[in-house]
Each structure stands twice: as structure tokens, then as C-alpha cells.
Amino acid sequence: MDFELKTLTRPRLCAEKCEALIVLMTDDTPIAGDALSQLAASAVKSGDFETKPGKLLGSYRTAGVAATRLVLVGCGDGSVKNVRTAVIAAMNTLKNSNAKRVVLSLCGLPHVTADVVCTSLVACGDATYSYAATKSKPVLSKLEKLLLVVPDAVKVKPGFDKGLGLVNGIALAKEWANRPANHATPVLLAGAAKALAKLPNIKVDVLGPKEVAKLGMGSFMAVAQGSEEPLRFMVLHYNGAAKTRAPTVLVGKGITFDTGGISIKPAGEMDEMKFDMCGAASVLGVFRALADLKPAINVIGLIPACENMPDGKAIKPGDVVTSMSGQTIEILNTDAEGRLVLCDALTYAERFKPRAVIDIATLTGACVVALGAVRSGLFSTNDSLAKALLEAGESSLDLCWRMPLDDDYAEGLKTNFADVANVAGRAGGAVTAAKFLQRFAAKFAWAHLDIAGTAWKSGAAKGATGRPVALLVDYLLDQADPSKPSPVKKRTQTA
Ligand code: BES
Ligand code: MN
Ligand code: ZN
Fold it and tell me: Class of the 180-479 domain?
């Protein structure tokens, strides 16, 4: 779909020919003399339309309006969050319709900021994404063009451009996350990473089993050894600033299918473990967005990708492996595999002398219990990094919540047979997983996002959400601001 941004007056909006015109109405959108205003005023007065967020009123071939369909949608006080609700509700009414050209007017909002425009685009992208890769008769959207109408296009152009980058990045993340494991193997996922190298400022290296063995990634290799599919380790580079500028490293968990291994998972909903590479998909999505947005920063993406399968060669509970850091790990539960692939990627990140390292992982069911589908779990040893990520979550409406890292949580990871065990007890499972990772992240400012509850939806709406691409992009764009200091190399919360 094509997006366009334009300034139009109310009378011109009424005269705009299109299959559908969507008009956002706040609690106090001013009433003027044009047909649209009159219609809205009388619908509110009669009680047939309310301006509560997401409330809809549709009409067909309306007098004084050139659009075939008119959709009035309430957006409350016009806050960014309510705009998102309104746009998604309105766009959903056009799903499976014949509308090719849709006009979305934000002119009724009191403040049409760059943020409002960006959010509207992202919401449009969200509502219109549809999965097709493995359908023989995909339902293709007829939508060709979305014209976004604002009072001052020049003023909000930066928000429009950012929105375009996000739409592309989020769609890419959803697409790879949604693909079933047999259509998104580590090799295929590496192909998706390589395809990004065609975009400006992006370079991609892909390592296979031999190179990974040479690096000494014994923990990552241990997870991969139970599968017929060979592992891949992807290294993405986005260069938008001088080489001397320290990069931010993003590490995405890329378990393309998680059976649990020998500690096998129950059958119910096991299909959803194709989403266990949503962290990796979000890294690919961020790089897609960076190529569009071209911020003046450097970013490295690391993706350890493999399957977690039970096999004659698979790791067994009690096996001890040696990680790239030299630390030995007793694998007490083969289903705690995410931390085993991430720990070696974290050690690999050291070579980039990063300003910060952020790992993104569908790591624990315990995080779903703790925070549900609303906020991702945020763990960090660095207060300024944590603050920046929390703020990026709020500004992008892609929320996270900080969780603790007290050393007492690491007690359960002690073992008689290695330096550390890969699991502790059931209690505080999201935190003990983060405590395991922290042992491999001592040499840089580090944050961990547990997206197990937020990366995909279950049930009838089963599918990837594209989170936390928006959060990460907001954080990274903020780093391009030269007035922002890099995270202070200071340990917080724990020694
Ligand atoms: N990929 C799962 C985490 C997960 C489970 C995400 C359910 C979303 C929904 C991870 O590899 C895993 O299996 N974690 C275990 C850890 C446990 C063995 C300590 C879990 O959460 O049960
Ligand atoms: Mn697992
Ligand atoms: Zn997993």
C-alpha cells in the first residue's frame, strides 16, 4: 500500500473522490458549515454517534460528500493512544471491502503533531497487514492508497516519514514471526537477514556451524545439536555514523521452533513455539526501519538461530557445556534453551565495544504470568538505559515495565557440577532467567526485554504483533540526538 500526506481544507475534503473517507472526531471537534460537520453534529445530537475512542458511524453515498463510504470515528480527547484505537477500528471496517483509495482525515484533532501522524500510519499498517505466505488462495487487500489529510503537512512530515519506516519494519517482523517453522528455518531466516543487505547502509554476515564452533559457542551449539536443521549466527551492521561512534547491539533470540527438547513441552499450543524467534524477527524489523530512517548512529544486530528438538544427539538434563565466555553451564532443563543461545551472543557482543547491548527474547512463560500481554518485561543493570527504554516504550505505545535483578534471585542457579545451572526453581522465573543472562553481560551497559507475553497473540487473532520494533526504533532514534549522553557505565540494583 502507498501512503501520501496532504494538506486539505474541510470543503476540499468533502469534495475528495475516494472509496472511503475516514474522519476522526474528538470530544470537541469544532462544528463548521460544511456537510461533514453538519452530519457529525446531528449524529452526536441524536445519540447515533459518540466520540468515545473507537466508536463508529458509517454512511453510504452521503449528501455533500464525494467519498463513496464515509466512516466517522470517535477518538475521545485526541490523545495518541485514542488516535491509535480510532484508526484501527475504522480501518478494520474496510477489511475485505473493495476500497482501493482511502482518505483518512486527522483535521478534526486539536493537535495534529508528528507523533499523531506517525501513530496513525503505524495503526493503518497494523490493521491492513495480512499473512499470505503459506495460503494457496490468499485474501489480498484491495487497498492501494491511503491519503492522510492534515492541517499542515510540512509540519508533520518527520512523523510521516518515521511512520513509513515503522510500518515496513513492523510488517517484516510480523511476517517472519508468523511463518511456520518449516518455512522459517535458521537457514531461511538468515536469507531474510541477507536480503536486508541490499538496503542502504546495511551489511550482513552469516556464520554457520563451523565458524560458530571455532568461536567456541559451546552453549549455542548444544541447543542446536538436537536438530537436523543447521544453526545460523547472523551479524547485521547498520552504519549511519562515523566508525568511531560506539554501536548499540541488539541481540534477538532466534529459536525457530522450541519443542522443549528432551524436557519436552506438552502438546497443547505447542504450535505457538514457532513464535520463539520473535526476538530475532524484531531485530530484522528494526534494521528494515533503520534503512528507511537513516539515523546518525551505528547498530549491530546479532541473531543466534536454531531449533530446539529432542533427538538421539540432543542435550540431556544434567549435561554440562562450556560457553564462549568460558563459564560452564549445567543444563538442568533443556526447555530453558533461550538463555543458552543468548549467552554466547552476549559474549560475542563484547568485541564491538558497545555503548549498550539490548537482548530481545520470548524467554519465559513466567513473564507472561507476571505482565500478561500489555507490557514487555524490562531488566537492566543500568538506570539510564532502563529509563531510556521505558520512555521509548511510552512514546511508541509499545510498553515495557522494569523488573528487579537483586542478586538473591540468583541463588537457585547454583550447582555442584558447573559454574551455573540454566534454571532455578519455578518462583520468579522471568527474573532468574535474566539473572542467568546478566552473568554474560558484565562488560557493557545491558538491558533484556522479555517479550514472551507481547510478541504474539493467541486464540482467534493468533499472529505476531511486531512488538517491540516500535519501542526499539524510538530508543535508537533518540540515541541519534547528539545531546543525549551514552549510558553511564555504572552497575545499579546489584553490585
Ligand atoms: N520459549 C519459551 C518461553 C515461552 C513459553 C514463551 C510460553 C511464551 C510462552 C522458553 O524457551 C521456555 O520454554 N522457558 C521455560 C523456562 C523454564 C524451563 C525454566 C518456561 O518458561 O517454561
Ligand atoms: Mn524453551
Ligand atoms: Zn524458547
Answer: alpha beta
Element (H, E) at 56: strand 56-60
Looking at the chain, the domain(s) classified CATH 3.40.630.10 span 180-479
Which DSSP letter does residue 97 get?
A: S
Q: What is the pLDDT of residues 70-98, one digit of tens each?
A: 999 999 999 999 999 999 999 999 988 89
Closest atom of ligand 1 relative to the 423 alpha carbon: 19
Residues of the chain within CATH 3.40.220.10 domain(s) are: 2-151
Catalytic residue, candidates 265, 294, 443, 457: 265
Amino acid letter for position 4: E
Given a contact cutoff of 8 angstroms between Cβ atoms, the answer to whether 428 and 407 are in contact is: no
Atom number of ligand 1 nearest to Cα 276: 1
DSSP 367-412: HHHHHTTT-EEEEES-HHHHHHHHHHHHHHT--EEE----GGGGGG
Q: What DSSP character marks residue 52?
A: S
The string of pLDDT tens digits covering residues 383-416 is 999 999 999 999 999 999 999 999 999 999 999 9
The CA 220 to ligand 3 mean position distance, Å, reads 13
**Any idea which residue has 500510519 for its cell?**
121
Give the torsion sign (CA, 148, 151, 153, 159). Answer: negative
Q: For the domain made up of 2-151, give the CATH fold.
A: Leucine Aminopeptidase, subunit E; domain 1 (3.40.220)
CA dist 474 → 47, 341, 455 (Å): 40, 27, 17
Q: CB count, 10 Å around CB of 169?
A: 28
Q: Which residues surround ligand 2, an ion (CB under 5 A)?
A: 258, 335, 337
Cβ-count burial 405-415 (b if 16+ within 10 Å, e if not):
beeebbebbeb
Q: How far is residue 245's CA from residue 297's CA, in Å, rounded to a whole number? A: 7
Spatial neighbors of 47 by CB under 8 A, at least 6 apart, are: none
